[in-house]
């Protein structure tokens, strides 16, 4: 698959909206894992939660397209699992709070 040069890249509105949703999800999961609070705009306030959220996004952006396709779209992949989004009030123990 040939990649475009930076000057030729134009992201669709759907891509931008999906990216924004992933940013919010990364911040939400980071806050759940660290036990830190979210700001009123739904983003993490503490440096450790922000670093964890940025790490999640960086990991996603650095994963190879072929690997992502194999994991989520290929036959026999995770696409066999039923997707169920986390409810807005979902909580879990802050498993990384003592580590970070």
Q: Any overview of this molecule?
A:
The chain is mainly α. The chain is built from three helices and no strands. Helix 1 crosses helix 2. It is globular, with a radius of gyration of 16 Å. The mean pLDDT is 87.
What does this entry show, briefly?
The protein is an all-alpha fold. The chain is 46% helix and 0% strand. It has helices spanning 13-34, 47-62, 65-72.
Key features?
100 residues, mainly alpha, 3 helices, 46% helix, 0% strand, AraC family transcriptional regulator
Question: Secondary-structure map with pairings?
Answer:
Layout: H1 13-34, H2 47-62, H3 65-72
Helix pairs in contact: 1-2
Organism: Mesorhizobium sp. WSM2240
Protein name: AraC family transcriptional regulator
Coarse morphology: globular
Rg from Cα = 16 Å
The counted number of beta strands is 0
Low-pLDDT parts are none
Helical fraction equals 40-55%
Q: Roughly what is the average pLDDT, rounded to an integer?
A: 87
What is the H-and-E element order? HHH
Number of helices: 3
Amount of beta strand: under 5%
What class, by secondary structure content? mainly alpha
- Largest sheet, if any? none
Give the CA-CA distance, first to last residue: 39 Å
Protein name: AraC family transcriptional regulator
Organism: Mesorhizobium sp. WSM2240
């Amino acid at each position: 698959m040939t990649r475009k040069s930076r000057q030729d890249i134009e992201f669709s509105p759907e891509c931008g909206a999906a990216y924004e949703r992933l940013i919010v999800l990364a911040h939400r999961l980071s806050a759940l894992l660290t036990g830190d609070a979210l700001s009123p705009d739904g983003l993490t306030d503490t440096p450790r939660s922000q670093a964890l959220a940025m790490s999640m996004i960086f990991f996603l952006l650095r994963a190879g397209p072929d690997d992502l396709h194999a994991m989520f779209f290929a036959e026999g992949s995770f696409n066999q699992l039923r997707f169920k989004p986390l409810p807005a009030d979902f909580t879990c123990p802050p498993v990384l709070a003592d580590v970070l």
